[in-house]
Specification:
Blueprint: E1 2-3, H1 21-34, E2 38-41, H2 44-57, E3 66-70, H3 88-102, H4 110-115, H5 121-125, E4 134-140, E5 147-152
Parallel strand pairs: 1-3, 2-3
Antiparallel strand pairs: 4-5
Length: 154
């Protein structure tokens, strides 16, 4: 399963006005779907987000019954995005999303991912674990960053 590693998913950001309420709901529900025995594949920030989501969902970490991959698309999809607007972000994110859904990351341009500030460390390390087709539970770009929640398997 894939969730984004956005810090807004940490509990301290879920105040009275949650900036990513829809994303949080989709991510927590998907993590619950995994059940116990989750192994996390993520960078350091993604690890923090994964731990928070696992705790919120009441899911135990450990083992390898299921994998929680943390990563997201580009951070350059609007003028107000963290990396500002880069027109290449749209085609890149479309290609990355399609590769994730299909379960074949062999054609992903990892160099372009870095240029577009995509958080793909966990995605790249999980390339052999991703097997399509995926169910997409969330697909949006709040704040100019491409976020997805996806599940592989039934």
């Amino acid at each position: 399963m894939l969730v984004p590693g956005v810090l807004a998913l940490l509990p301290e950001h879920a105040s009275q006005v949650d900036p990513v309420a829809e994303l949080r709901a989709a991510a927590v529900e998907a993590v619950r779907w995994l059940g116990d025995g989750v192994q996390v594949v993520a960078d350091a920030q993604g690890e923090r987000v994964a731990d928070a989501l696992l705790a919120e969902a009441g899911v135990a970490r450990g083992g390898a019954a299921a994998y929680l991959v943390v990563g997201n698309g580009s951070a350059k999809r609007s003028e107000k995005a963290p990396g500002h607007l880069d027109e290449r972000a749209f085609a890149f994110d479309d290609a990355l999303r399609a590769a994730l859904v299909a379960g074949d990351l062999s054609g992903v341009d990892w160099t372009l991912a870095e240029e577009l500030w995509a958080s793909v460390d966990g995605i790249r390390r999980a390339a052999d674990l991703v097997a399509g087709p995926a169910t997409v539970d969330y697909d949006d770009d709040p704040y100019g960053v491409a976020y997805w929640v996806m599940r592989w398997g039934s």
